[in-house]
Amino acid sequence: MAAAPRDEEAAAWSEEAARLVWGGAVPLQVHLHDADVTALPPPPPFLTLGPRIGYFPLLVSTIKAHFSSSLPPGVDTVWFEYKGLPLKWYIPIGVLFDLLCADPERPWNLTVHFRGYPADILSPCEGEDSVKWNYNNSLKEAAFIITGNSKNVMNMSQADQLAMWESVRKGDLNSYMNISTKIKLGPFEEDFLVRTSSLEPRQGSDEPESPGSIKPCRVPVRLYVRRVQQDLEYLEDAIPVSDWESVSYINRPLEIRKEGGT
Fold it and tell me: Keywords, A to Z (predicted)?
């Protein structure tokens, strides 16, 4: 059966929204911390675009190359800070920007450190491998929210796992969609608004669902919640986040149903 015009329009909107998100970037101006400067004059800041869906550890090699002539010898874990707050490396760049900049600044001025990793605040990071491991865990959580288990992700072939990670690392939406359709996690597919032919009882009811009824699409959403001590008329009036104790997150499904039961 051909898709209704309304369904085709919604699918087009969904695809366009995904392309805008994947193509989005935050302009960054990265300064080398004074304690890491070993040559005069100090190096100029590094200007780059940070993909909104990307992660700071994936930018380290490029940033390190820019500051290489001024860095002290030896190797340590690289980390970033904004106004004295160490940035959590496993949170996407776009989420960090939205969370920490109530009044967005462009470019976003950050400080990079090549020494003194704040292990009491940030979890250990071994570069890209740590980011990849964290991403895979988040993918399993998303799969569980959508389907009730994470088998589709855990049963992915090594080749598909690598291809999916490369698509995220490179910001390649087309490659990502090619892989996500295999494991049926994408919210853009008809699969997630499927017609049920089984006669399962509805939750809280002894009456079975009629054949052809619609299961809702469950979109996994991670909500970051900030605790503010004072009453505010406008969120923009809140003082900047100064510690991670005031920020937490929860994972919840957002259910989407087709209108009119079709």
Answer: Autophagy, Isopeptide bond, Ubl conjugation
- Strand residue runs (E) in 143-201: 195-196
Contact 257, 10 (CB under 8 A): no
Q: Determine whether 255 is exposed, middle or buried from the number of CB atoms within 10 Å of its CB (0-12, 13-18, 19+).
A: exposed
CA 176 – CA 166 distance, rounded (Å): 8
Give domain limits for the chain.
22-113
Q: Alpha-carbon distance 109 to 29, whole Å?
A: 5
Spell out a b/e string for 225-245, using b for 16 or more CB atoms within 10 Å of the CB, else e: eeeeeeeeeeeeeeeebeeee
CATH class assigned to 22-113: alpha beta
What's the CA gap between 26 and 94, in Å, rounded? 7
Question: What whole-number distance in Å separates Cα of residue 237 and Cα of residue 70?
Answer: 39
- Residue 209 — very low, low, confident or very high, per pLDDT cuts 50/70/90? very low
Per-residue pLDDT tens digits for 48-89: 999 999 999 999 999 999 999 999 887 789 999 999 999 999
The pair of three-digit structure tokens given for residue 26, joined into one six-digit string? 């935050």
DSSP letter for 208, please.
B
What is the per-residue pLDDT for 197? 35
54 compared with 218, residue with greater pLDDT: 54
* Residue 169 CB partners (closer than 8 Å, separation 6+): 54, 58, 128
Of 235, 249, 252, 244, give the one whose Cα is nearest residue 101.
235
3-state secondary structure of 252: strand
Distance CA 18, CA 2 (A): 24
CB 69 within 8 A of CB 41: no
Query: 214 by DSSP, 3-state: which?
Result: strand
